[in-house]
Amino acid sequence: MLNKCYIQATSAISPQHTFEGEFHTQPFVASTRNLLNVIEPNYSGFISPNNLRRMSRLLKIGQTAALKCLVGSEFPVPGAIITGTGKGSLHDTEKFLKNIREYEETALNPTPFIQSTYNAVNGLIALQQKCTSYNNTFVHRGFSFESALQDTLMQLQEGVESVLVGSFEEMSEEHFYIKGRIGHWKEGATNETFLADNQTTGSIAGEGSAYFLVTAKPASRNLAVIEGVEMVYKPTTEQLGNRLQKFLAQHGNPTIDVLLTGENGDANFAHYYQYLHQQFSPSTTIIPFKQLCGEYDTASSFATWLATEILVHQSLPLSLQAYNTASLQNVQHVLIYNNFMGEQHSFILLSK
Amino acid sequence: MGERVFITGVGMITAIGDNVAQNLRSLQAQQPGIGYTQYIDTIYQSILPVAEVKHATATLAAMAALPNGGEGFTRTTLLGLIAMREALANANIEDASEVGFVNASTVGGMCDTENVYFDIVDPSKTGSFLQYVDTLDCADCTQRIADVVQFQSHISTISTACSSSANALMYGARMIKHGMLEKVVCGGTEALTRFTINGFNSLKNIDKQHCKPFDHQRNGLNLGEAAAYLVLESESSVKRNNSTVLAELSGYCNTNEAFHPTSPSPDGDGAYEAMQKALAMSGRQLNEVQYVNVHGTATLNNDVSEGKALERLFGSKVPKFSSTKPFTGHTLAAAGAVEAIFSVLAIQHSLIYPNLNFSERMEELNISPETQLLENYTVDNVISNSFGFGGNNASLVISSAQL
Q1: Hey, is the C-beta of A50 within 8 angstroms of any chain B C-beta?
Q2: Architecture of domain B5-241
Q3: Is CB count within 10 Å lower at the N or C end of chain A?
Q4: Residue ranges of the Beta-ketoacyl synthase-like N-terminal domain (chain A) (predicted)?
């Protein structure tokens, strides 16, 4: 079993007010449709104007969130940079595909091709911070961030002092349309309605980027502790339950104060969440999180960011006040359960 | 820390052979796999040479022994399945449920998606092409391979451009050392695409001739397609199961150059550090390395950078080195695993492969690659390099099997 790690800094660009100011007291940002786009920050404080002109949207989002996490921290040059992304820069992939067709394969600008490379953001972060050590990118749908987290725990156990671990994901209008063709989205839903209707299929699309600067040993801030991560591939509900019990047992069977779930309103996957709910006593406060960020490959990184916020503040943020929290106090353990399209299931355990 | 990691199975398909034995024969016969594409719809069909696997996708589906005829399977997945079946058989693995799988890919199922993409985005079009909607991302090939051969333990996919499968091998080895797995299959699969041909061509990185690594007149790479997987196994599992050991993965290192998004530093800082640290981990000395299978893409920048790094690391005693990319082309995400298997074969058969197409030493370097096939040349330790965009440098040390 891998050792835990200590979170020293976090950052998140999301459809909520997570990047600037105090998220805890910010109101819920409601969507008008079944696609949640991130609130893009002012990039100019993080990226030079020359670079900004060249960079595509996801590269800006991914690099800015990473820099926000590193700059001003105790470890501006981390011992490793490890990320997860399911889709990489969709805009660049789409643009290069179109350029090939439009210009009939001649006189193409290589920039979208370069930026479509899944590890492009990692390279930029390393370049900016002159970080020459270990650098890796995982690209496996709902295991992308989880794998990055597992690699992080391994690096720390191997003697690396600090790791920047995170994720970045975007949803383009074109890709939103494509995934709509195979039934990924719930017609007419918003982030205020999609969870209430789990009799129909489809969810709401989302995107975002979240990073964590973590250390093997306690350091100056210790916002929260990541106790462990567990991935389960295409399980039955029973197998899922067994793996949950095993995972919790490995961590001393802690009382779970808050369970953050990746419920996404899709009737195809509701039974996993219903089953999970039954595994916990009424003393566990169960809260879904995708109304805040939407559904995407690395949504569990947003949940990890949210769990850190809850552990730091020892209460729910204003945007989650709709959930009954009267009894919520002394939050010691937050568990995240997510699944992506019913295939990649994961647990992430955090503690105070 | 942790257990030693052994290689107990290999499987591959490249432009020079459908399996490991055929690849070895082509290397020994000095027969390259570079020619013109028969399967990619591109204006560069007869202009830019590529190293293509010489089978249509339907034939690959038959070779992959799929019960459903391969419907919905991309060429990327089929190449991967063929190599995977060989690797598992070679390691005598019949039940893969407890075996991990770390795959690598740079563009997923782009090879098939790019042909139907504009139908997929066109609301007026419907049809069977919609089954390819979800094949573009890199996890598609990993999961389809996993589901066919019934991997039920760890699965993941890495994408760090041209070093992807070297990083997959490293990650798998580390999981074994951490005691998380006893066996894990690592490698990558990459099919040729119009997307990557145009990508590298737009960077002016593709030679119109057969590539000439480490030659003064080199003018870029040739792209290739391949899949290659290595079964890694912990020392205790090897002993308990009496597994046949092919070689040891004795060292590895991943560094980042933090120099430029697509170019290596002129002095090869990242390559130097990756090789140096990988060798240190292996516990081998410089003079114990008999062969370096270089990244050697034949791009202007790579070969200067990598050559400088070799001179810095080994001084005046640079071991035999060669690039095998004139045989297989640059197979991107698969390259690290393809060349790791070539390193295993070099050790097993006491071979040094010739660096084809070399005639003139680079003026920046004092070293030249080996141009002859050397047989009966004892090889105990090989360094295999894979360097990618984003400054990602990976070096592996593969050593003769001594339990």
Answers
A1: no
A2: 3-Layer(aba) Sandwich (3.40)
A3: N
A4: 46-176
If you write DSSP's letter for every residue of B175-209 in order, what string do you get?
HHHTTS-SEEEEEEEE---HHHHHHHHHTT-B-SS
A96: chain B residues, CB-CB within 8 Å: 195, 198-199
Token pair, residue A330, equals 């002394």
Residue B65: phi and psi, rounded to 5, are 55, 55
Least Cα distance to B49 among B342, B373, B325, B336 occurs for B325
Active site residue B253: no
The answer to whether residues B196 and B106 touch, using CB atoms and an 8 Å cutoff, is yes
Left (φ > 0), alpha (ψ -120 to 50) or beta: where does A84 sit? Answer: beta
Q: How far is CA A185 from the centre of its chain?
A: 19
Cα–Cα distance measured from residue A70 to residue A72, given in angstroms and rounded to the nearest whole number: 6
Test B202 with A138 for CB contact under 8 angstroms.
no
Cα separation, B60 vs B343, in Å, equals: 26
Q: Tell me, what's the ipTM?
A: 0.97
- Taking CB atoms and an 8 Å limit, are B198 and A126 in contact across chains? no
Residue B161 has pLDDT above 80, yes or no: yes
What token pair was written down for B46?
């007869």
Find, in chain B, the residue whose alpha carbon is nearest to that of A150.
Answer: B175
In this predicted structure, the answer to whether residue B290 has a pLDDT above a threshold of 90 is yes
pLDDT digits (tens, 9 = 90+) for B306-358: 999 999 999 999 999 999 999 999 999 999 999 999 999 999 999 999 999 99
Task: Yes or no: say if A34 and A187 are a contact pair by the CB < 8 Å rule.
Answer: yes
Give dist(CA A19, CA B195) in Å, integer: 35
Residue B236, min C-alpha distance to chain A (Å): 18
Residue B282 neighbours by CB under 8 Å, 6+ apart: B250, B251, B381, B397, B399
Contact status of A129 with chain B (Cβ, < 8 Å): yes
User: What is the model's pTM?
Assistant: 0.98
> Does residue A1 register a pLDDT over 90?
no
Q: What distance in Å separates residue A246's CA from the closest CA in chain B? A: 14
The helix/strand/coil state of B156 is strand
Which residue out of B111, B138, B162, B186 is catalytically annotated? B162
Comparing B5-241 with B252-399, is the CATH topology the same? yes
A211: left (phi over 0), alpha (psi -120 to 50) or beta: beta
Distance CA B79, CA A277 (A): 42
> Among B152, B154, B256, whose Cβ lies nearest the Cβ of A135?
B256
CA atoms within 13 A on the CB side of B328: 36
Domains of chain A in start order, with CATH, are 5-351 (3.40.47.10)
Q: Break chain B into its structural domains and give their ranges.
A: 5-241, 252-399
Q: How far is B160 from chain A (nearest CA, A)?
A: 5
Are the CB atoms for A1 and A217 separated by under 8 Å?
A: no
B152–A233 C-beta distance less than 8 A: yes
CATH homologous superfamily for the domain B252-399: Thiolase/Chalcone synthase (3.40.47.10)
Over chain B, what is the mean pLDDT?
Answer: 96
Whether A269 contacts A223, CB under 8 Å: no
